[in-house]
């Protein structure tokens, strides 16, 4: 498969590729959150191609693929027991968050995200003291996003209801200014991946468009965002995958095709 075939990639595959390329050379401990199939595939892809010393925490299993170890399957549920079969070690459920209080890398998803990178996974209030939409809650998000060296925001939708001026509640504080005021030790959000493109945060901490995915225009992104993005003069297309990246992604990191709609 050639680099020109990037248009055939699913959005989740593009997310996995973006993540795999962006990890830092000294990222050694990568913690995968619940229901983050693209993040798991991206971490496995990086481990197989450019970060051989990384340890990937998937649910309760510790993975490292150096020396030809088989890649673990990508399951839709984080704590799928099948994930323990290929691990080189495992964690106990009752102590997993203590053991992993400060990974190098973590991943965050949400019901809402705002222009400062704050994420809401708690719910959407109905304005009458109840909930219009209840999310899964902030388990581990506050600890991990506060302390890890850097995290990635992965949003499954991109529309004005999810990309909002101000989130209804904060389960992961991304605002660079507030993090500094509160003395947070971690590095905060590195990138945000959505079905439309890739984003980072400028020097003042506002969300900035980095690239658009194939078939998406800057106008599409602007129309789907509920606040004013920082828009560079030239916004490129998300870079195409190399032949090696696509081969490893589809034959080793995600052989079931889960990122293309397959079933685990």
Give keywords.
globular; five-stranded mixed sheet; alpha/beta; 264 residues; four-stranded mixed sheet; Glutaconate Coenzyme A-transferase
Report on this model:
- With 264 residues, the chain is of the alpha/beta class.
- The protein has one domain: Glutaconate Coenzyme A-transferase (3-Layer(aba) Sandwich).
- Helices cover 23% and strands 20% of the residues.
- It contains 7 helices and 14 strands.
- It has a 5-stranded mixed beta sheet with strand order 5-10-12-13-14, sandwiched between helices.
- A hairpin with a 5-residue loop joins strand 8 and strand 9 (131-134).
- Helix 1 (11-22) packs across helix 2 (37-49) and helix 2 (37-49) packs across helix 7 (243-253).
- The chain starts with 10 loop residues before the first helix and ends in an 11-residue tail after the last helix.
Q: What's the layout of helices and strands?
A:
Elements: H1 11-22, E1 29-32, H2 37-49, E2 55-58, E3 61-63, E4 89-90, H3 96-99, E5 105-108, E6 112-114, E7 119-120, E8 123-125, E9 131-134, H4 141-147, E10 150-154, E11 163-164, H5 176-182, E12 189-193, E13 197-201, E14 207-212, H6 218-223, H7 243-253
Parallel strand pairs: 1-2, 5-10, 6-11, 10-12
Antiparallel strand pairs: 2-3, 3-4, 6-7, 8-9, 12-13, 13-14
Helix pairs in contact: 1-2, 2-7
């Amino acid at each position: 498969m050639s680099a020109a075939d990037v248009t055939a990639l699913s959005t989740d595959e593009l997310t996995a590729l973006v993540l795999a390329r962006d990890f830092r050379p000294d990222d050694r401990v990568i913690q995968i959150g619940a229901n983050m199939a693209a993040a798991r595939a991206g971490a496995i892809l990086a481990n197989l191609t450019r970060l051989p010393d990384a340890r990937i925490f998937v649910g309760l299993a510790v993975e490292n693929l150096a020396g030809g170890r088989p890649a673990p399957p990508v399951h839709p549920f984080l704590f799928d027991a099948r994930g323990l079969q290929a691990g080189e070690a495992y964690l106990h459920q009752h102590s997993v968050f203590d053991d992993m209080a400060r990974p190098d890398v973590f991943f965050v998803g949400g019901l809402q995200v705002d222009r400062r990178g704050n994420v809401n996974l708690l719910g959407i209030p109905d304005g009458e003291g109840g909930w219009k939409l209840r999310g899964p809650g902030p388990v581990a998000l506050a600890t991990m996003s506060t302390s890890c060296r850097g995290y990635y925001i992965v949003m499954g939708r991109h529309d004005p209801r999810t990309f909002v001026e101000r989130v209804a509640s904060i389960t992961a504080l991304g605002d660079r200014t507030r993090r500094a005021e509160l003395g947070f030790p971690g590095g905060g959000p590195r990138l945000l991946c959505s079905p439309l493109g890739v984003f980072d945060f400028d020097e003042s901490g506002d969300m900035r468009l980095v690239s658009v995915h194939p078939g998406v225009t800057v106008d599409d992104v602007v129309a789907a965002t509920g606040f004013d993005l920082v828009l560079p003069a030239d916004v490129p297309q998300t870079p195409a995958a190399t032949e090696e990246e696509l081969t490893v992604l589809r034959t080793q990191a995600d052989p079931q095709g889960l990122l293309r709609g397959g079933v685990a």
